[in-house]
Amino acid sequence: MMRLSSTGFAILGAGLIAISYGLARFAFGLFVPPIRDELGLSSYVIGVIGSLPLISFLLATAIAPLVTRVLGARYAAVLSGGFGLAGLSLISRASDPLMLGAGVFACGICTGLMMPALTAAMQAVVRRSLHGRVSSVMNAGTSIGVIVAVPTVLFLAGAWRHAYLSFAILAGLGVIAAWLLLPSVSRIVPANAADPPPLNELPWSRLVRLTLFAFLMGFVSAAYWIFAPDLVVTLGGLPASATAWLWLAVGVAGLGGAVVADLADRNNPPITQALMLMMLSASLALLAASPDQPLLTAFSALVFGLAYMSLTGLYLMTGIRLLPGRLAVGPVLPFMAVSLGQAAGSPVVGRLVEGFGYADAFAMFAALGILVAILSPFYPGAIAQAEEEEAAEEESGLQAAYDSQLLDEQGEPLEDPLEEEDEAPAAGS
């Protein structure tokens, strides 16, 4: 295996995340209008199918640490890519709801397995002091994948089967890259790291609050991810190609989400969460109010992309901070909660669309988002309010969160063997 640099690993990781998250998971909503028309699906059925990859994501994420430990990072990533390849291929050939559902279910497994595999590989390839930066680049892969999906709509208008076939080819290339470039390491937590705190010492109250907020954000966001393209086509009368620009705006704005999330952790997470949830709700309301206005729909997508990616990044950092030493759980717990919320929200949106129409359904979800935003003072900030004096001296941000993850038996940051290897030649020169 060729030894990757930290930059090379970040680029490879972003590419694999773009395929597994951006294309295999979030691109589905972009193709709902032509898929619905060709297969004759109701809004409720679309909602149920849209929830399947989220359910399979949860199941895959739950067993991903075991899979990574048994297979190693390389083969776990290859397995993830294999499910993505199979799922995207099935979608491209779908002739009925059952086959379509099987395809999106397989895509969810792909998504759930990929990040734990990359987390294990990162421990072996990337210096610990760069984990925050590399993680930010990899997380940007979601937005990159959403952006990559856009040309397929513009140039393959109505040809959603060809679009998904092209995604499957990209997944195949991802499998080859993972096979050739990722290490076979299986250990996520280094052997010399101190044991994580026992379960009875975890901040359960704060973990429950984080999980509830992440779940509710996922529930509200399901409306946009699954039904926004169909809304502008069905209610707004815009051409199918307009959905491409909608998703382009989501992806571009999402690239700024990591920056906003990092700033939030450095300042006031509860206030930032409230602001981002209000923006998320505003994007739903604006889309429902002006579905026939291309500029306003694009603006709503920009607002949604920034708010959604900022919130997921904030939840990521909070999860890492609240679960030190649990690399297999801390980064993925918030994503599991978000996915569970989206899985629950998708069929609810579909039923509301059938019963009340798109405008009222989106308005209801926007109102729920505002209610959750009002409850944001209960969000567990990175540092307990009772520890304000210590908090002033404590570092914040994504890298600081990663620094606090791995400690030695004395409670000090764990020595990084990769940095020691880099220093050894320098000392001898």
Question: Care to describe what's here?
Answer:
This protein is 75% helix and 0% strand. 56% of the residues are buried. The protein is mainly alpha-helical and 429 residues long. It folds into 2 domains: 1-188, MFS general substrate transporter like domains (Growth Hormone, Chain: A); 196-409, Growth Hormone, Chain: A (Up-down Bundle), CATH 1.20.1250.20. The model is unreliable at 382-394 and 423-427 (pLDDT under 50). The longest helix is centred in the first third of the chain and has 51 residues, at 43-93. It has 17 helices and no strands.
Number of strands: 0
Mean pLDDT: 83
How many domains, in number, for the residues? 2
Rg of Cα set: 21 Å
What kind of sheet is the major sheet?
Answer: none
Shape: globular
Please indicate the percent range of residues in DSSP E strands (runs of 2 or more): under 5%
Low-pLDDT stretches: 382-394, 423-427
Structural class, judged by helices and strands? mainly alpha
Individual helix count = 17
CATH superfamily of the largest domain: MFS general substrate transporter like domains
Spell out the helices and strands N to C.
HHHHHHHHHHHHHHHHH
Span between N and C termini? Answer: 27 Å
Q: How helix-rich are the residues, as a percent range?
A: over 70%
The oligomerization state is single chain
What is CATH's topology name of the largest domain?
Answer: Growth Hormone, Chain: A
- Any idea what the CATH architecture of the largest domain is? Up-down Bundle
The CATH class designation of the largest domain is Mainly Alpha
